[in-house]
Amino acid sequence: MAALFAGRVLVANNSARDELDTERELARCLDNKVLLLYFAAAACPRCRAFSPLLRDFYVRLTDEFYVERASQLVLVYVSRDDTEEKQSRFLKSMPKRWLSLPFEDDFKRELAERFAVAAVPAVVVLAPDGRLIAANAVEEIRRAGPACFRNWQEAAALVDRNFLAAEDFDEVARRSLTDPVRRLKYKLGKKTRDEEEEEGGSAAR
């Protein structure tokens, strides 16, 4: 998922306003997680009504007060605000773990076009590999609350790292990436040995 924001900056919604701009930082924050792109504007009445619900939804899935371990969920606020001050004021009332694109970044418009966002509020839900899970999950979140995350998790086929030791997860990744190569090597090696035996047999005859 970090590839979606390659070459971009994401800003952490904390007091230091930390900027994530390296491939490593983006990967650490975004990889193996369901991504929510929240398109909204502070001045929009519908957004003002929905944003507290989304904030509660996110907190109940990620805050240790409610859950033993945070869900594999990350949210990027894609502002449709008309001033940077409005964007900053809005984010101050939202969870510190939210991320956002800088106000001046035109990539916000590109994202809106890519995911056909015509009106706000809109919550686009993406799997870790970039597949679209929901074009707009606003009504689903209103209706089902945090329970809808399980459906997204299943649709995304997430590998839950919390249930795997680090070495186990590395082994899964290593096996999935190298299996085809190793199988090919095995086949080639086996074929070579068979050919050698056949050639040896022919020579003996």
From TrEMBL:
One of the record's GO cellular component terms: mitochondrion
Any GO BP: photoreceptor cell maintenance
Domain Thioredoxin per the UniProt entry, residue ranges: 1-158
Name of a matching Pfam family: Thioredoxin_8
InterPro entries to which the protein is assigned, alphabetical: RdCVF, Thioredoxin-like_fold, Thioredoxin-like_sf, Thioredoxin_domain
Highest taxon of source: Eukaryota
Protein name: NXNL1 protein
